[in-house]
Design a protein that fits this description.
It is a single chain. This protein is an alpha/beta fold. The chain folds into 2 domains: 86 residues, Winged helix-like DNA-binding domain superfamily/Winged helix DNA-binding domain (Arc Repressor Mutant, subunit A, Orthogonal Bundle); 160 residues, 3-Layer(aba) Sandwich (Rossmann fold). It is built from 15 helices and 5 strands. The N and C termini lie far apart (48 Å).
């Protein structure tokens, strides 16, 4: 991960990764979030003592948070303090000016994309692309805010000649899941990973031997426990912006990455793409 950690997102990264850390590692992250200026001057033993953990735990925590070493962690943290913490963590206030709101909203969107880029695993992207390319049909489950993401993936896959269907009704999802086979893929989209209908319908599909791919925010959730392949975004939604665009931008970036990987790897998909493009030319006015 060396060199990939943006100086403007490290504190947000620590906050977002908290659910993925062990209990002891979480103590290191929490102490850093509360005392970032102090931590940059501490040796490993100093942070270990302040956090109430061992030196080895501090080193493990740094690696779990995506840093190659404690020194890289401190250097990136020090750089992050150049940017106001308030903007990084999007502490919107009723007293904010329009200029403040613009700065904080845009900062949050950029941070979500950068943090997702640093979090996403190439192996999971590759596994998801392979599963989709081999599937007889890809069913995409998305409700509420995830509705648009599901239809965006459907559109992209259809343009590559891959049979895909976005399902945004929970009852139709249940029916679809019941009819799934081992040849099918269910791509389940849920930012929280806790949508009751998405989780239950994914379970039904899994019971029918479909491959389950989930797109959800980083951390363990009911949906990740059902999934065979998990793609993670990394974005925080606050009480002011619970339907914030940052999570959807991160999701769309993952979708676009998947689309590009499949298009680049499948000669037949590329040929179908050009064939479809040619057909669509006749529809232009």
């Amino acid at each position: 991960m060396s060199g990939n950690n943006s100086s403007s997102t490290v504190l947000l990264k620590l906050q977002t990764l908290l659910p993925t850390l062990s209990k002891a590692e979480r103590k290191v992250a929490n102490y850093t979030l509360k005392h970032p200026e102090e931590v940059i001057s501490l040796a490993v033993s100093g942070l270990a003592e302040s956090s109430g953990v061992s030196d080895a735990t501090v080193v493990r925590a740094c690696r779990s948070m995506g840093f190659d070493s404690y020194q890289e962690f401190k250097l990136t943290l020090a750089q992050s303090l150049v940017t106001p913490t308030e903007a990084i963590q999007e502490s919107l206030s009723h007293d904010d000016s329009i200029e403040d709101i613009i700065a904080k909203v845009f900062s949050n969107e950029v941070a979500a994309l950068e943090l997702t880029r640093d979090t996403v695993q190439a192996g999971e992207i590759e596994a998801a692309a392979d599963a989709i390319m081999k599937a007889e049909t890809v069913y995409i489950f998305g409700l509420g805010n995830s509705h648009a993401i599901a239809f965006d993936l459907q559109h992209k896959l259809l343009r590559l000649g891959i049979r895909a269907a976005a399902v945004s009704d929970s009852h139709i999802q249940a029916i679809t899941a019941t009819n799934c086979t081992k040849k099918d893929v269910v791509f389940a989209v849920s930012h929280s990973g806790s949508s009751v209908d998405i989780v239950s319908n994914s379970k039904i599909a899994k019971q029918n031997h479909a491959t389950i791919i989930s797109l959800t925010n980083i951390g363990t959730s009911p949906l990740t426990k059902v999934s065979d392949i998990t793609l993670h975004t990394a974005s925080n939604e606050t009480r002011y912006r619970i339907v914030a665009l940052s999570s959807r931008l991160a999701q769309m970036a993952i979708i676009d990455t998947l689309y590009t990987v499949i298009a680049m790897r499948s000669k037949s998909a590329t040929e179908r793409f050009h064939k479809i493009e040619k057909a669509l030319e006749t529809k232009k006015y």
